[in-house]
Write a structure and sequence with these properties.
Layout lengths: L1 E6 L2 E4 L4 E9 L3 E9 L7 E7 L4 E3 L7 E6 L4 E6 L8 E11 L2 E6 L3 E6 L1
Parallel strand pairs: 2-11
Antiparallel strand pairs: 1-3, 3-8, 4-5, 4-9, 5-6, 7-8, 9-10, 9-11
């Protein structure tokens, strides 16, 4: 099993910054991709940022130029540096880890961390 713990959320004023962290632990061969999602209105979570094991990065258009994703493979950790935060960034943010377990890959989620941006 793989355990994912995300943290770093909080309350910040518009224009401020936060850094989210996520660490994966447990039984897996390697980690394919790691990413951050937020709970958009509706049942689906929307992608915020994603980084693959090869270092390929994708960002949602709404966060490009403001957020930076990075990972430390040795620590099975992914970070999301969020700058120039806006009230519309307020949401619960969830870490996603795609782990390689034997011949399979499987997605695991953190419990979520709340980001609140005040005007």
């Amino acid at each position: 099993q793989v355990h994912v713990v995300d943290s770093g959320g909080g309350l910040v004023q518009a224009g401020g910054s936060l850094r989210l962290s996520c660490v994966a632990s447990g039984s897996f061969s390697s980690i394919d991709r790691m990413g951050w999602y937020r709970q958009a209105p509706g049942p689906q979570r929307e992608l915020v940022a994603l980084i693959t094991s090869d270092g390929i990065i994708n960002y949602a258009d709404s966060v490009k130029g403001r957020f930076t994703i990075s990972r430390d493979n040795a620590k099975s950790t992914v970070y999301l540096q969020m700058n120039s935060l806006k009230p519309e960034d307020t949401d619960a943010y969830y870490c996603n880890v795609r782990a390689v377990i034997g011949p399979w890959t499987k997605d695991f989620w953190g419990q979520g961390t709340q980001v609140t941006v005040s005007v």
